[in-house]
Write a structure and sequence with these properties.
The protein contains 4 helices and 20 strands. By secondary structure, the chain is mainly beta. The relative contact order is 0.22. The strands form 4 sheets. Strands 4, 5, 7, 8, 12, 14, 19 and 20 form an 8-stranded antiparallel sheet that branches. A 7-stranded antiparallel sheet has the order 10-16-15-6-13-9-11, with no helix packed on it. It folds into 2 domains: 36 residues, no CATH class; 255 residues. The termini are far apart.
Amino acid sequence: MVLILASTSVSQAAIKVGSKCSEIGATYKFKKQTLVCQKNGKNKTWQLQKKVKTSSQAQAQTPTPTPTATPTPTPTFTPIPTFTPIPTPTPSAQNSLLISPVPMGSFNTTFMNGKPQSRDIGESIFFDSPASLTRVDFQVAAFTWIGPEYHFATEEQKHNLERPINRGEYEPLAAKINVSLWRDDSNLLSTLAPKFDLRSGFTRVIEFEVSGKIPIGETVSLDFPSSVSVQAGYYFLNLYFVIEDLHVTTLRFSGRQTGNNKLGGPNSDMPTNCVYTPAEDLYPKGQAYFSYQDNQWDRKTPQEKWTYQTPRSYTFKVHNYAKVVECIKIGSYNDILNTGDIYLDIYGKKS
């Protein structure tokens, strides 16, 4: 027993850092230290084993960064206060107001015009005697602003992605406006026809195009290139718009709704609790129309919808998308929609 203990004591004393060892990789534990046999130059010596952190220990000691919430993108725009609007013609002694379906001060609604429905909007009018036309006035009271994400959203989400823009809230809209006047040879408009095609029973009297910027909520006046002669009878004056700003999805034209619908929705078949008194029709000889076409809108991709501009159309129907103000329900499609007239003043001189 004495010999064995003495031998063990001697061997432990001989194993220390820097002392020689025989087998590389061999380990020796003493108290809380571990020595490992490593090659040191040409010799093999005992060295302290370096502690290696495990992956779990490293993760525990490494601070985890706090995730930053990504804000949901919201529609933004930058108003530009300086602009060059379409110039207002200089008043002339030869100019007098000949046709005014909706006199200034009697507006009670706006008429929708835009994609995917239509970019054409017009009014049927009646001249009781020959005249020479020189100018036409109209007004875009407001419009709807959207971003590209609108076309990727569900119907429920789209309400929160639309922004109504009114006077003073946005830069004037750069636009091309096609103006055309058509004579009703078949007297179809005398009955306030629900629909018609300008290529049948109508004669184009004049057509011209103007480029400029439309200030929101202000009257825009357009001069005819030259005096236009008309005879007594029914006519249709149409405006077709191409808007450069793709954020603008719907123009809202100043006007007066005069229908008597009692149910809501685009087909006037949705229940509503709203009760209102129909407005008086100040111009019973005419009414507002807008063009319609099968543009396969629902089959287009979101990218296609974003860049799409409704093409020119010659087929028109009664414009029945004027909302009754008292019955507007935000976030709902059962608003009461009516027919009526748009603000479209025509100036000239009776012959």
